Amino acid sequence: MAFKFRNSDSFSNILIKYFSFKNETKSMEPLIDLLPVLRNSDFDEFLNFLKENPEVTENFSYYIKNLFKGKPFNLSLTEANILSENAFYPELKKRLLDKLLPNIENENTIWYLVDNISVQPKKDLEFFRSLSAEQFDELFLLLKLDDYITKKEVKRELLFSLNILAWRIIGNAMEVEVLNMAPEYRNFDNPFLALQNEIDVLNQDFKENPDFVIDSKDVNFKQIKVYLQQCLDFVTVAFKNSAKYGISGKINQSLLKIRQQLERMNDILSVMLINEESDVIKNSKQLFLNILDYKSHKNNLKELFADSTTLMSHLITNHTAETGSHYITSNRRDYLNMFFRASGGGIIVGALCVLKMLYSYFPGSDFLHAILYSLNYAMGFVMIYLMNYVLATKQPAMTAATMAKVLSAGENTKKNYQDFAHLVSRLFRSQFIAFMGNVLLAFPVALAIIYGLDVFFKQNFALEKSATLLKDLDPIQSKAIFHACIAGFFLFLSGIISGNVGNNSVFYHIPKRIEKNPFLNYFFGKNLAKGLSDYYAKNWAGIISNFWFGIFLGITGPIGLFLGLDLDIRHITFASGNFALGLYGADFSVTAYTFWISFITVFLIGFFNFLVSFGLSMVLAFRSRSVNFGEVKEIYKEIFRYFWRNPLRFFFPILSKDLDIRAQEMVDTVSTKSEDH
After folding, report:
1. Are residues 252 and 362 in the same domain?
2. Model's pTM, two decimal places?
């Protein structure tokens, strides 16, 4: 049995089938059949067929006009590819639902027609855009659509769309929180209200003379363009001020929505502008392409994430960038200071390793152990932070933002790449000495504590756990590398938390609220309130970040057990302490293989901790600052060349006066530079 596929007919057969007579149908079937075939055909042949068959062409033109007659298209201009919600998650939920179960649209609209005719809008858009100007012009002339933009009903729809957009913009722009994002405009006339007034004038002109035409010399048009630009400037300033004032997800979404609507108004005005006769057909074509373009982006989740998260990721990384600059050593004194601070962190982690092992002996459920492990990690990390010690792997998430900030602020010349490579060497050696400080102290401290407990209690507490601890440091017998990557992800996540808390603190004016709190000022005095405010501003983001990092590390193992999955974490400093406990529990009677594989794995764990956390943080930071990824290849090449010429600078603070000065200037510049978002 031979099957005849729907699109197996040629365009000529389809046209003859439906338009060899004056077809009064308003069914979409002819266009649904024709479009897929047309995409795969020679368009010149299609045009030649229309020219050689004037009756078919006349009937085809009549059908198209009849199909679209009386159907409004304002929804296609005011709704398509514009945020419909003022918050990210409601918008995401709506788009997901519309994607899975498309919304039921009014059948008497062009929105509905386009939705049903162009089932593959991106392919259709690409096809029409691939046509030459001459081909497109000829198509519109043959179908008598060349003057579509001048029709009264079309102008009415365009003006109505402008009105709808202007009303919605004013509704969002007049919100107090939005206005507060741009205090620079408080002493000026509101550009959004002025824009609406000019749109009203345009509508009045249409009522008085439906045949009116807008040209670039029109005073009203010029005023509208001026106010449009002022409104866009307002949004730009508001986004720029987000680094100073912070921003919420809702305000971010509102500003994005306002910008999209302003840009859409600009698109509408562009197709209404006719300076010469040729603009009539050009704008008619452009309106058609615009509607198809807007439709092709409908319910796009990728764009939603891109638009909605870019600024928030910028703000998150902005806080961590400021912190990260303190983790890059610039001279021998800083280098040694980093070692001593990391050593302090290693001492605390060594004690935490022993405590975690002792907690594992506690009778109770996995849930209880999750709580104990989490509090053990969390309190330890907070202690390290408050004592100004260093946990080595906390650095990458901070320093990655700094690096991206440097690149986005610079001119990105070859000389800048060389300076940046030197800055990377400073970062790497800072990370290296922090690793060494952590590892070199965590191992002996854990060993000393377990030995002390053995002497005091006459019991080797590590005996029972020794085999497991050493097995966990064998990448062949365990998933140590995978678990190290999980820890790296949590390090990245804690950096995001830190930046988010920092942003919210600024946006909601938490330090000022503490300082001006009437209760604190009345009972404890202004000095205490000011001290609490300063302490909060300086430390709260770090405290919360470290606390949650500890929680993540503590609950991963028990959650893995609960789900029946081999989930756990491996962190270089804890791996070093556990290595000491494993050796002591085995009475140091281990094979050479066990010793060396465990020793090597400790540093492999550190490498993957660093690789995952730094890599993810760099991706987020690059994306938030719109760094051109095409440059990344050249940057990496320069870093490798620099390493090949100066390998020791990646491990030790070898001075290079000129390079050190220029690298420091790069860091100092981004810490003081006012940024455009």
Report:
1. no
2. 0.74
